[in-house]
Specification:
Ferritin, alpha+beta, 2 domains, 4-stranded antiparallel β-sheet
């Protein structure tokens, strides 16, 4: 009695064939784990099984690791961004105090501009941190009510009323900011964060160089 052929279907290319008695097993795809079992005498497919156990081990490994790995890198990046925000808040407060401590109108205006710049930069980094899952990004300086990261001696310089000393302390604070940004850029940030931090770093470095030039000029 003739056997009605199975309906024509689009089957993947057979990759290899192995024999077990009167049966033939053809594996069509190791990646997807699809295989077919054929009986020699009937020459028709009597069983087709899609077995996920044949999935690519590498694909499965990546799928298993992806959530934890993503979480780890997000936490690491937000730690870096929060550290920069603290640095910027220190600079914001430091330049604000420096502006209040000098009588030179040009310096006063410059310090105020830099203070406002650091505030804008901190806000931009807070927004970036939120985009990467940080629900409560840093909002304050490294120590509330105090200045650190190179600004610690600013108050004594202001008390002395020496513009050169004030500029020297501002430069010290900027040295710290430049170093923090360099470290952040070497920490493997996501493209959007890297681009933002790079732009800010260029302006931080320009401010540092300007302060250093003014300090050198005031020394004479």
């Amino acid at each position: 009695m003739p056997v009605t052929p199975a309906p024509t279907t689009r089957t993947p290319t057979l990759m290899f064939l192995c024999s077990f008695g009167n049966f033939r097993i053809g594996v069509s795809s190791i990646q997807t784990g699809t295989f077919f079992i054929f009986h020699c005498s009937l020459r028709v497919c009597v069983l087709a099984v899609r077995n996920r156990s044949f999935e690519s081990l590498e694909t499965k490994r990546r799928a298993d690791l992806r959530p934890d790995t993503t979480y780890f890198y997000m936490k690491k990046e937000n730690t870096v961004l929060n550290n920069l925000i603290e640095t910027l808040k220190d600079g914001q407060e430091g330049f604000k105090q420096a502006a209040e401590g000098v009588s030179n109108p040009n310096l006063k205006s410059l310090f105020r501009d830099y203070s406002q710049q650091r505030s804008r930069f901190a806000t931009a980094l807070q927004t970036e941190a939120r985009r990467h899952g940080e629900s409560d990004p840093e909002t304050s300086s490294s120590a509330t009510g105090a200045l650190h990261r190179g600004w610690i001696n600013l108050k004594s310089a202001i008390t002395g009323g020496d513009e050169h000393a004030i500029l020297a302390e501002c430069e010290r604070g900027e040295d710290s900011a430049v170093e923090e940004y360099k470290k952040a850029l070497d920490d493997g940030l996501t493209p959007s964060a890297q681009e933002l931090v790079s732009r800010q770093f260029a302006e931080i470095k320009a401010a540092h160089d300007r302060i250093k030039s003014l300090r050198d000029a005031a020394k004479g």
